[in-house]
Amino acid sequence: MKQSLVQAAVLLALTVGVFGQTSAPATPTAQPAAVPAKPITDTDLKSVDTPKPEERAKGDPEGSLTGTAADVAVSDAKRGLTIADLVNQAGQNKIAINFVWTLVTGYLVMFMQLGFALLETGLARAKNANHTMMMNIAVYGIGMLAYWMIGFSLQMGGVGAIANLGGTPPLSAEYTFNLFGKPFGVFGQNGFFLMHNGTNDVAVMVLFLFQMVFMDTAATIPTGAAVERWKFSAFAISSFVFAAFVYPLYANWAWGGGWLSNLGANFGLGKGYVDFAGSGVVHAVGGLSALAIAMVLGPRIGKYNRQGKPQAILAHDLVLVITGCLILAFGWFGFNPGSTLGASTNGNLRIGAIAVNTMLASAAGMMSAMFYMWTMYGKPDASMTGNGFLAGLVAITAPCAFVNPVGAVIIGLIAGVLVCVAVAFFERVMKIDDPVGAVSVHGVCGIWGVISVGLLADGRSNFGGAWNGVNGSVRGLFYGDPGQFVAQLIGVSTLIGVVFSASLVLYLVVDVFAGQRASAKSELEGLDLPEMGALAYPEFDLTSRGVEV
Amino acid sequence: MILVGIAVTVLGFVISLLSLGMAASVNGRLVMVMTGLAVSLFGIIGLINRTYLRNPIWKR
Asked: How far is CA A37 from its chain centroid?
């Protein structure tokens, strides 16, 4: 208290002096001689004032006595507080901030699972509500265990040190081969069961949680395209393989130190393939896999008439649909800003810009889809407005950290129109029955998001001075780097050529051994009773008997 | 025919990949990657999907 009074008196004297000088005529004063900086020593720390125990015992309603030098962990009680203790505390604080940030944003992404469940169930018919909800909860458990056993290792087992998380040295084994004289990383080899080769590590656990919820988002997307006709057993097998192999391989190439991320370092293509939060890795992978399963399953009975003309099958609850969209948008504030894997140092203060870009693109996507439908069909269709909302979010996911707010709005506006055009194309031209528009929202707009990095990245972001091991900021074609555009297109070609093909092979193999599609009898009855053994809305079914529900 | 479609779709990716070794300039790589994308899309839309549409559920 005494020291505080002395400090206040000195501050008052300085203030009076400054104002006194400004009101008096300026007079030349001699510059004080430069005093050499005196390094702080451990001895200086002894005089730091800390609250006395009797003061703390009275409580701290103002919050001025809590969080002081007394709270710094001391390594040697006899020596007391040292400079080394302070420096260690600063390092641990940085990592603690980044751990908490990454975990909390990961929890937000996990919450998106509810958004998907409500969205898909609302767009399905009432007779399939239980089955659709079950797919959405089961994919969480199935996918997580597959990813824990195999997928995480393949994806991140060779990523190397992640500085934001204090280094992840156990994740150091990437399988590579040489092609065109350069190393091509294809999959990681450490981390099976989170026990293998020292991966039972605090930083690895944080990384696992965050990456797992991303994988689960991708694994959920195909359930939307396959809704109302996917046999549950086939869904379970397919989802396990998807989470263990299909998703992790592409994620390794983009995020785990694999060959796509090194296109810049090895072949001079910009900063390599850049996908900040997963327009390609999560959404396009899920969307293209959704296209594959929709092809294998074929359309629902009644979706097309004898002439092959599409028929409307109405959503059973638009309230669920819009609620699901809003929950997804909320979760996206974990998805995109959380992908910094930290809030402290290395340019991570861009989390604010990333969050704003995310919300701007979602608004732009929603508006452009709404006005497109209003203009083309006379009404602002609710489900397509929701899809436009999600389309903007999907598209901004890859570029959110590298574009400015105007770029984000442009990306969202294009995505909103693109999703409407794509839904009509798949339904009318390719005759693919995608009840929730998963292929259009996640596949098409995910690819657009990947491409938009190569066009609109403005070169103003700076995450520690380099990206993918190449110095400088990510810059797209319109800002002077055509190589970045080519790197992004190679990523898109890999998505379409490899991810789609691998997914199709997976679903065809499961189809041969287990059969992918539920029987026509079950489909007409609704999958709730034949597949799940219980109706989602038993009373509703009773009052609607005899009516197509 | 579906297997042929899958092979063509993968071939498109291979063309894009080969651009890294066969073309030195950015423009050359861009042309090869665009060609690869077109081949892959032909595989999906022109071969795989067309095969599924030969005997669709609404004609059975």
From this structure: 46
Give strand ranges (E) for A141-180.
174-179
Residues of A in contact with B9 (CB under 8 A): 496-497, 500-501
| pLDDT tens profile A270-284 | 999 999 999 999 999
pTM of the model: 0.91
Rounded to 10 degrees, the C-alpha dihedral B50/B53/B55/B60 comes to: 180
Q: Give the Å distances, CA to CA, from A202 to A48, A75, A168.
A: 33, 21, 9
Q: Is A501 on the interface with B (CB under 8 A)?
A: yes
CA distances from residue A541 to A301, A460, B25 in whole angstroms, order as listed:
20, 57, 64
Mean per-residue pLDDT over chain A, rounded? 91
Nearest-CA residue of chain A relative to B35? A493
- Give A-chain residues touching B52 at CB under 8 angstroms: 295, 298
pLDDT in tens, A196-251: 898 999 999 999 999 999 999 999 999 999 999 999 999 999 999 999 999 999 99
Which residues have C-beta within 8 Å of that of residue A186, sequence separation ≥ 6? A174, A175, A176, A177, A249, A252, A253, A258, A259
Q: Is A489 on the interface with B (CB under 8 A)?
A: yes
SS3 A183: strand
Residue-wise pLDDT tens digits, A38-63: 888 888 888 888 888 898 899 999 89
Q: How far apart are CA A274 and CA A485, in angstroms?
A: 10
Measured CA to CA, the distance from residue A270 to residue A272 in angstroms comes to 5
**Helix locations, A24-57, DSSP H:** 42-46, 53-57
What does the angle CA A463 – CA A251 – CA A115 come to, to the nearest 5 degrees?
90
Chain B touched by A253 (CB under 8 Å): no
| Residues in CB range of A93: below 8 A, 6 or more apart | A344
Give the span between the Cα atoms of B55 and A366, in whole angstroms. 37
Q: In this structure, what token pair is assigned to residue A278?
A: 């997963």
